[in-house]
Amino acid sequence: SQELEQSPQSLIVQEGKNLTINCTSSKTLYGLYWYKQKYGEGLIFLMMLQKGGEEKSHEKITAKLDEKKQQSSLHITASQPSHAGIYLCGADPGPIQGAQKLVFGQGTRLTINP
Amino acid sequence: DVKVTQSSRYLVKRTGEKVFLECVQDMDHENMFWYRQDPGLGLRLIYFSYDVKMKEKGDIPEGYSVSREKKERFSLILESASTNQTSMYLCASSLRTDKKNIQYFGAGTRLSVL
């Protein structure tokens, strides 16, 4: 079965600094999804990547999928307090295995210090 | 916008009680999911449904059952609540025919079993 490992597990950065969160898959990714979760709340969809080498941006958040489709990174530029929360990556294991389920990483807890 | 609504944000129940967690989505999605989220364990799939009256076990179905009598509503049932079912429960839905396979989440229900 597919497994996702996120690193780091937690991250504390000074406001205004850049940061990167990584998500590594044990198998080739059919689709990779990034979500953000505010403490004690549900997950909010950020971005989805499907093609090797693909890169997407939304405001100050950029997500990339490597050419081999086994690793993704989420980069935040000039972090703000509103970026604080838990970031989770999710993987689509593909139509053969999937029945459209997603497998999630354990999450990265991001704290922004003013 | 997709809206997934969970009936309660917080619930406190006693051991042995029968507990119902309700989830409603307003986007005519075929797929619906129930997860639980625990520190260090991430998001784990309990049950999912890809059509009315259809259900499939996820990774941790023991102690739970589900009901999908109408397309928009997916209920999670704890037949006899136990303290180890204290957790954050998240409901999600997705469009079955959508190749993007994006899941949309509710705000979560934090259940405490005493």
Structure report:
The complex is a heterodimer of chains A (114) and B (114). Chain A has 1 helix and 11 strands. With 114 residues, chain A is mostly beta strands. In chain A, strands 2, 4, 5, 9, 10 and 11 form a 6-stranded mixed sheet that branches. The relative contact order of chain A is 0.33. With 114 residues, chain B is mostly beta strands. Chain B has no helices and 11 strands. Chain B has strands spanning 4-6, 10-13, 19-25, 31-38, 42-51, 54-57, 64-70, 73-78, 87-94, 104-105, 109-113. In chain B, the strands form 2 sheets. In chain B, strands 2, 4, 5, 6, 9, 10 and 11 form a 7-stranded mixed sheet that branches. Chain B has a 4-stranded antiparallel sheet with strand order 1-3-8-7, with no helix packed on it. In chain B, strand 7 (64-70) and strand 8 (73-78) form a beta hairpin. At the A-B interface, strand 4, strand 5 and strand 9 of A face strand 5, strand 9 and strand 10 of B.
Task: Please outline the helices and strands.
The complex is a heterodimer of chains A (114) and B (114).
Chain A: E1 4-7, E2 10-14, E3 19-25, E4 31-37, E5 43-49, E6 55-58, E7 61-65, E8 71-76, E9 85-92, H1 95-98, E10 103-104, E11 108-113
Parallel strand pairs in A: 2-11
Antiparallel strand pairs in A: 1-3, 3-8, 4-5, 4-9, 6-7, 7-8, 9-10, 9-11
Chain B: E1 4-6, E2 10-13, E3 19-25, E4 31-38, E5 42-51, E6 54-57, E7 64-70, E8 73-78, E9 87-94, E10 104-105, E11 109-113
Parallel strand pairs in B: 2-11
Antiparallel strand pairs in B: 1-3, 3-8, 4-5, 4-9, 5-6, 7-8, 9-10, 9-11
Radius of gyration of chain A, rounded?
Answer: 14 Å
**Low-confidence blocks of residues of chain A:** none
Question: Given the helix and strand composition of chain B, which structural class is it?
Answer: mainly beta
Number of helices of chain A: 1
DSSP strand count of chain A: 11
Figure out the total of helices of chain B.
Answer: 0
**Biggest interface pair, counts:** A-B, 23 and 28 residues
How much helix is in the residues of chain A?
A: under 10%
Q: Distance N terminus to C terminus of chain A?
A: 41 Å
The quaternary organization reads as heterodimer
Strand content bin of chain B: over 45%
**Class of secondary structure makeup of chain A:** mainly beta
Q: First CA to last CA of chain B: what distance?
A: 37 Å
